[in-house]
Write a structure and sequence with these properties.
11 strands, about 0% helix, seven-stranded mixed sheet
């Protein structure tokens, strides 16, 4: 079983930055996709950013140019650098890994952006 633990959330003013971190409990040698989802009240959980084993990266349109996803396989970490935050970025951010038809989720970390 793979466990994911997020950290780095908090309260920030609009225009500020946060860096989310996700610690992965074990190495995953199969092809996989790692990413960050965001859950906001009244909305479906949305995929904010993802990075595939191949290196292919995708971003939601709303965060392009502001967010950067990265990984450090040696440290078993996944990161989300979030810049120029705005109140619409407020929500619970979940670290996710998809391996075939299996998904692993972290417990989530709250991000609040004040105007």
């Amino acid at each position: 079983q793979v466990q994911l633990v997020e950290s780095g959330g908090g309260l920030v003013q609009a225009g500020g930055s946060l860096r989310l971190s996700c610690a992965v409990s074990k190495n995953i040698f199969l092809s996989n996709t790692r990413g960050w989802y965001r859950q906001t009240p009244g909305k479906q959980r949305e995929l904010v950013a993802s990075i595939h084993t191949s290196g292919r990266i995708n971003y939601a349109e709303s965060v392009k140019g502001r967010f950067t996803i990265s990984r450090d396989n040696a440290k078993k970490m996944v990161y989300l650098q979030m810049n120029d935050l705005n109140p619409d970025d407020t929500g619970v951010y979940y670290c996710w890994i998809g391996v075939g038809s299996t998904s692993y989720w972290g417990q989530g970390t709250q991000v609040n952006v004040s105007s």
